[in-house]
């Protein structure tokens, strides 16, 4: 998988833009290139299932753009300073609170949980970002952007802190649709006396005595607010008027709303399209620590194959709620097994397949590929894309059951699975999945040939009980033996 395309860019992609509140054609700022920014994790604890939903959703969107011929620069940040408790301008920095709890330096906490996050993403086969900037590494850029806002009259210093003046920017609220006068004061935070308006948000915070994470600034020693980092880093690495800004629906307000206001008030063209993934539920309820249904990615991966988890996630649209439950996992496990077993079976048949091609099956493979791509062009509709893979599997299994399939057609089917299911949806990777099964397929096939010969010998010697016991043993481990006019065949 690479972010460098192998075909001409497809101009017919449509996506849902949160800002315009409708599906719109995607037109890149620079022809053939896509600049994407994703709000990454605050690395103060292990990543949870909500992170998995977001990261997999935008990973598929990124992969789809590459599949459709675009070169993608994918920037995802790491927040390691400035994100205060309850997302407010008051309270303790989440990094400092965790550092105190674990008796570590803040940067030890950041590195510990950043690498934990990286490990989780590798398990879920999420591609590494093109650029993975950290907030603490971009203090200079954040200060420069704040200075622009102060100079233009959209921010003010107060008692060593700097706040964005929301009343100075009439467009504040355009992403979320919230009118300023309708926003309740003091709901998310205690009203601070150093603000002109309770709804103003911090760009820079004065570091009180004992605050470990602190930097020099024109306004004194302090640290950046949560929102300013993403505006500064996205503009630095993607430039003015970059293409797509993504993140979870929970970040739409206040985080993304603040990002837009900061960048545009400073005079910078910002993201042209906004994409938000929906949340997830566990047993029908929103995941919450207070409800006791809070699960980390590591909790889930300890019980489930990472590719089954990924399959469950791509099985729902990124803008839909994803349900995590025993039934959902069982359904995902069954669905993923069906696809991976079809891939394994056709790979097993390739070694002995006759030359030539099956024109009728070739046409069906092409039709399923087209349906898959049409689904992704329509706001990255992964459920319909998965349905196209199931359609391919149904037709392939029917053809394999009817007799030998020519090698050229099997190669076409294999390419469809690996290209669409593998490269685009990110499936068939990791331990215990189809990729590993592919590596072992030669060994398994050789062993099964020996088993079938042993069963045939039992039958020739009229040892029917032993032959039946061998067949029943195979059945118990998921292998079916079929007696055909061409001899016994097996499948998983």
| Total of DSSP H or I helical runs spanning 4+ residues | 14
Q: How do the strands of the widest beta sheet line up side by side?
A: 4-3-9-10
Give the helix/strand class: alpha/beta
User: In angstroms, what is the radius of gyration?
Assistant: 27 Å
Oligomer designation: single chain
Distance between the termini: 29 Å
The backbone outline, from C-alpha atoms, is elongated
Give the uncertain stretches in residue-range form. 185-190, 431-439
User: How much β-strand is present in the residues?
Assistant: 5-15%
H/E element order = EEEHEHHHEEEEHEHEEEHHEHHHHHHEE
Describe the largest sheet: 4 strands, parallel
DSSP strand tally: 15
Query: Level of helix content?
Result: 40-55%
Average pLDDT rating: 89
What key phrases describe this protein's structure?
alpha/beta, 492 residues, 14 helices, elongated, four-stranded antiparallel beta sheet
Short summary:
The chain contains 14 helices and 15 strands. It is α/β, with parallel strands linked by helices.
How would you summarize the topology of this molecule?
Blueprint: E1 14-17, E2 22-25, E3 33-38, H1 49-67, E4 71-76, H2 94-102, H3 106-123, H4 139-151, E5 155-158, E6 161-164, E7 201-206, E8 222-224, H5 228-238, E9 244-248, H6 252-265, E10 273-277, E11 280-282, E12 285-286, H7 297-301, H8 306-314, E13 322-324, H9 326-350, H10 359-377, H11 382-402, H12 407-424, H13 434-460, H14 464-476, E14 480-484, E15 487-491
Parallel strand pairs: 3-4, 3-9, 9-10, 11-13
Antiparallel strand pairs: 1-2, 5-6, 6-7, 7-8, 11-12, 14-15
Helix pairs in contact: 2-3, 4-5, 5-6, 8-9, 9-11, 9-12, 9-13, 10-11, 10-12, 11-12, 13-14
């Amino acid at each position: 998988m690479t972010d460098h395309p192998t075909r001409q860019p497809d101009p017919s992609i449509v996506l849902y833009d949160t800002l315009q509140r409708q599906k719109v054609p995607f037109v890149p700022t620079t022809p053939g290139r896509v600049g994407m920014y994703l709000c990454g994790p605050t690395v103060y604890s292990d990543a949870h299932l909500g992170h998995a939903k977001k990261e997999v959703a935008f990973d598929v969107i990124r992969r789809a753009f590459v599949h459709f011929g675009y070169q993608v620069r994918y920037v995802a940040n790491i927040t390691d300073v400035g994100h205060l408790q309850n997302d407010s301008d008051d309270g303790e920095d989440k990094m400092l609170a965790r550092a105190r709890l674990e008796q570590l330096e803040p940067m030890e906490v950041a590195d510990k949980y950043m690498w934990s996050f990286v490990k989780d993403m590798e398990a879920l086969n999420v591609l590494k970002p093109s650029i993975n900037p950290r907030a603490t590494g971009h203090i200079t850029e954040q200060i420069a952007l704040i200075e622009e806002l102060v100079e233009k009259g959209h921010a003010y210093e107060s008692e060593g802190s700097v706040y964005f003046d929301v009343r100075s920017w009439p467009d504040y609220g355009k992403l979320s649709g919230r009118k300023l006068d309708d926003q309740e004061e003091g709901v998310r935070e205690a009203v601070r006396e150093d603000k002109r308006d309770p709804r103003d948000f911090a760009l820079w915070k004065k570091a009180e005595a004992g605050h470990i994470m602190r930097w020099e600034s024109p306004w004194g020693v302090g640290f950046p607010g949560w929102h300013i980092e993403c505006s500064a880093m996205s503009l630095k690495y993607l430039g003015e008027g970059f293409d797509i800004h993504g993140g979870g629906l929970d970040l739409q307000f206040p985080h993304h709303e603040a990002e837009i206001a900061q960048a545009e008030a400073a005079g910078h063209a910002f993201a042209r399209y906004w994409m938000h993934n929906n949340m997830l539920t566990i047993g029908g309820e929103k995941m919450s620590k207070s409800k006791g249904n809070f699960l980390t990615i590591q909790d889930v991966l300890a019980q489930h194959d990472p590719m089954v988890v990924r399959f469950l996630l791509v099985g729902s649209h990124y803008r839909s709620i994803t349900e995590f439950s025993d039934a959902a996992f069982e359904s995902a496990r069954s669905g993923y097994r069906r696809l991976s077993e079809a891939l394994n079976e056709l790979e097993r048949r390739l070694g002995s397949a006759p030359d030539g091609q099956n024109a009728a099956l070739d046409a069906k493979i092409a039709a399923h590929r087209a349906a898959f791509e049409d689904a992704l062009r329509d706001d990255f509709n992964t459920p319909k894309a998965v349905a196209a893979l199931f359609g391919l599997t149904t037709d392939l299994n029917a053809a394999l059951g009817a007799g030998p399939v020519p090698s050229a057609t099997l190669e076409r089917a294999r390419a469809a699975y690996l290209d669409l299911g593998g490269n685009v949806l990110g499936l068939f990777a990791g331990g215990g999945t189809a990729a590993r099964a592919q590596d072992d397929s030669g060994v398994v096939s050789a062993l099964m040939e020996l088993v079938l010969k042993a069963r045939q010998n039992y039958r020739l010697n009229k040892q029917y009980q032993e032959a039946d016991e061998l067949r029943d043993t195979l059945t118990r481990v998921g292998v079916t033996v079929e007696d055909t006019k061409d001899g016994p065949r097996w499948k998983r």
